[in-house]
Please model this.
Amino acid sequence: MKIATWNVNSLRVRLPHLLDWLAAAQPDVACLQETKTEDANFPVAEIQAAGYQAVYCGQKSYNGVAILARSPLTEVQHGIPDFPDDPKRVIAATVNGVRILNLYAPNGQEPGSDKYAYKLRWYQGLTSWLRAHLHQQPHLAVLGDLNIAPEPRDVHNPKRWEGKIHFSEPERAAFREVLNVGVKDAFRLFDQPEKQFTWWDYRLKAFERGWGLRIDHILLSPALVPKCTACTIDLEPRKRERPSDHAPVVANLN
DNA sequence: ATGGCGCGCGCAGCGCGA
Model:
């Protein structure tokens, strides 16, 4: 089973890219973030024609998540239980016995801001939920735009980014707390080339210059780790005209 | 690297993302 995550930055604008990418990459499960689409406008027909079922929760302009799958999606859950928040950042479902958590973590704006405090609170809520959920669902995969670069090697210029949003120490600590629940970063299960990123600023030709961050992740529970045979970043969609600023991350599970 | 981009909304220019 191939599972993937991609922040599409508007599903409406990126639908042609998404359909081409589904055909090329052939994921069995695709978690999307920043759909920016109300449920009534979700492109169900196009997604079905591509061979996928979908569950989704979105809103106008901001946020929005969806899970696409070639097999039935069951036990669909919205939001983080016990975290009073409704900006359409979390959707979960079970596919082929694997519990899929699709997350769009808050951006955080900048350290010290209200949005930053909210991001850290959101991560506390996430960690508590994960701890409980992992006990109930041992075959658990967490995918999404987690908006944190966990280590210096996940940032093109760690000195430049130290203390900045996505790479501040409290954020990295929050990410470590997630890992401490018992999940592993699928990308780091394997030897990887240097300078592997999933997001590049639209400005200043950041993609061409390799100025990126690795902030989109796939985390696997202990039961899934031995089943994982590969985890890669797919740069092809980012090379297109009018791309999303994020690249998809893909993991193969036996 | 930091003004510089791209999105939605809605019809001008702003809020937001990362």
The helical segments of chain A are 11-25, 44-49, 114-136, 158-161, 169-180, 206-209. Chain A has a mean pLDDT of 97. Residues 9-10, 12-13, 34, 36, 60-62, 107-109, 147, 156-157, 160, 164-166, 199-206, 209, 211, 213, 215, 242, 244-246 of chain A lie near DNA strand B (CB under 10 Å from a C1'). The CA atoms of residues 6 and 142 of chain A lie 13 Å apart.
